[in-house]
Specification:
Chain B: Keywords: Aminotransferase, Methyltransferase, Transferase. Chain B: One of its GO terms (molecular function) is transaminase activity. Chain B: One of its GO terms (cellular component) is glycine cleavage complex. Chain B: It catalyses: N(6)-[(R)-S(8)-aminomethyldihydrolipoyl]-L-lysyl-[protein] + (6S)-5,6,7,8-tetrahydrofolate = N(6)-[(R)-dihydrolipoyl]-L-lysyl-[protein] + (6R)-5,10-methylene-5,6,7,8-tetrahydrofolate + NH4(+). The complex is a heterodimer of chains A (124) and B (385). By secondary structure, chain A is an alpha+beta fold. Chain A is built from three helices and nine strands. Chain A has one domain: Beta Barrel (OB fold (Dihydrolipoamide Acetyltransferase, E2P)), CATH 2.40.50.100. In chain A, the strands form two sheets. Chain A has a six-stranded antiparallel beta sheet. A three-stranded antiparallel beta sheet of chain A has the order 4-6-7, with no helix packed on it. Chain B is of the alpha+beta class. Chain B contains ten helices and 20 strands. In chain B, helix 3 packs across helix 8. At the A-B interface, helix 1, strand 4, strand 6 and strand 7 of A face helix 1 and helix 8 of B.
């Protein structure tokens, strides 16, 4: 597994070459509580760093997910339609959201590594 | 991503703490601001598990943010009828009635429970919503200045679920025999503990009022039972929505009258004839002719929940109503909602539609409650009073 990078909006990116796996952090899933539905983009959709890519519905509320990178969606997690709670149970593993072919791998440089994200969480 | 809790942390800092604040934190509660209080939104189990536990066994809720007060004096019940449409004059000692405070046009200022306390002196115990208590108390004391009106500084806990009666009966023998909407004062370690067989989850259960310094002992004792788990505001909201119970500030507000809100049953027969409460003309018209809009259950035909504020349209696109409460039902494992719909479109089974982000979804009008009520029925032949 490649290193994870995190956005301030609590999305993570696992970059492997120019293929990025995106999801939400363990902190984010714990803040949302029980997740009951996830609206994901379609394969082929162009995504832009900082723009909405998905909506996660918890029992209480709907929350937008913003893309931490720019590129094109090449795969969406097929398991989440029937089992959205996978994001609660295993956000970094089976609960990933989408895979994106990134247009500029350099964008990831501005994201936080594990240590920086841990420090960031302590400021919240 | 922006979570609800991000918004919560930006709320004004002057929040009141519940008497059981430390207990909630020890139990791992996630606290969130609500009606001026730091309230437990959920515990580690989460809203779904807490909701299901309440339906299967019993949950302990801290609802100390709600307002409690006593109105006392000769014919206090009759006098309170000038603000509410319930028949309060006939309320027997140790019985509780649900009613509403109304404005001059029959709109609901708040909904509340009124209990007639035992004793020669006429004393009424009122329990009102947290978000409205200041306004309610000001209204009542100004409108009825000849009576003693005293807000109570007491904790309020709710024990709700099918095991609540067995648990409370073990702790307070006799509590299990209280009738639905019955009330009694028990002794708890030398202090009076008010027990009312009521709640807002659709399950059998009790509301327990006691001085704040005794609340922790009671909570600890109740939680020591295997059947009892703590549950937060999130589960309470899911439970009351499943039970089709309206919530002030969402399904009830100053523009809604009791008839369209579906709580017209709480208007006493004598009051329907005699009136003498604010907005009587509007309410009588609604009772006689039917209201122009009604609160209904809504089943979105989608996996995503519909939320409060969503507009409802008929097939021809005409706007016919809106959602006032919407979420996911842990018991039914599907989205459910409530809202107001023009009476002509409010038949059970009618199909409406609502926007859901960039799509539209079909919404079926459904009967309430979504999950059947299981209030305690006094066994036949047994005099529970």
């Amino acid at each position: 597994m490649t290193d994870l990078r995190y956005s301030k909006d609590h999305e993570y990116v696992a970059l492997d070459g120019d293929l990025a796996t995106l999801g939400i952090s363990d902190y984010a899933q714990s803040q949302l509580g029980d997740i009951v539905f996830i609206e994901l983009p379609e394969v082929g959709k162009k995504v832009t760093k900082g723009k909405e890519i998905a909506v996660i519905e918890s029992v209480k509320a709907a929350s937008e997910v913003y893309s931490p990178v720019s590129g094109e969606v090449v795969e969406v997690n097929p398991e989440l339609g029937e089992a959205p709670a996978l994001v609660n149970d295993d956000p970094i593993g089976r609960g990933w959201l989408i895979k994106v072919r990134v247009s500029d791998p350099g964008e990831c440089a501005s994201l936080m590594d594990d240590a920086a994200y841990s420090s960031f969480l302590k400021t919240l | 991503m922006v979570t609800e809790l991000d918004v919560a942390t930006a709320a004004p800092p002057a929040l009141s703490k519940l008497p059981l604040d430390a207990v909630h934190r020890r139990l791992g509660a996630r606290m969130a601001p609500f009606a001026g209080y730091e309230m437990p939104l959920q515990y580690e189990q989460g809203i779904v598990a807490e909701t299901l536990h309440t339906r299967r066994r019993a949950s302990l809720f801290d609802v100390s943010h709600m307002g409690q007060a006593i109105l006392a004096g000769a014919r206090a019940a009759r006098a309170l009828e000038s603000l509410t449409p319930a028949d309060l004059a006939s309320l027997s000692p140790e019985r509780t009635r649900y009613t509403q405070l109304l404005n001059e046009s029959g709109g609901i200022l708040d909904d509340l429970l009124v209990t007639r306390l035992p004793g020669v002196e006429e004393r009424l115990l009122l329990v009102v919503n947290a978000s409205r208590k200041q306004a309610d108390f000001a209204l009542i004391s100004a409108a009825l200045p000849q009576f003693d009106f005293n807000p109570l500084d007491r904790a309020l806990l709710a024990l709700q679920g099918p095991r609540a009666s067995a648990v409370l009966g073990a702790l307070l023998p006799g509590a299990e025999d209280l009738p639905f909407m019955g009330w009694r004062a028990f002794d708890f370690g030398g202090a009076p503990l008010f027990v009312s067989r009521s709640g807002y989850t659709g399950e059998d259960g009790f509301e327990l009022s006691l001085r704040a310094e005794h609340a922790e002992d009671l909570a600890r004792l109740l939680l020591s039972y295997e059947d009892v788990a703590p549950a937060g505001l999130g589960a309470r909201d899911a439970l009351r929505l499943e039970a089709g119970l309206p919530l002030y500030g969402h399904d009830l507000e100053e523009t809604t009258d009791p008839v369209e809100a579906g709580v017209g049953w709480s208007i006493g027969k004598r009051r329907r004839m005699e009136g003498g409460f604010p907005g009587f003309e509007r309410i009588r018209r609604a009772l006689e002719q039917g209201p122009s809009r009604v609160r209904v259950g809504l089943l979105p035909q989608s996996k995503a929940p519909l939320r409060e504020g969503a507009e409802l349209s008929a097939r021809d696109g005409e706007a016919v109503g809106h959602v006032t409460s919407g979420g996911f039902s842990p018991t039914l494992q599907r989205p459910i909602a409530m809202g107001y719909v023009a009476s002509a479109h409010a038949n059970v089974g009618a199909t409406l539609s609502a926007p859901l982000r960039d799509k539209r979804v079909d919404v079926t009008v459904a009967a309430l409650p979504f999950v059947p009520h299981r209030y305690f029925k006094t066994p036949a032949g047994k005099d529970a009073r």
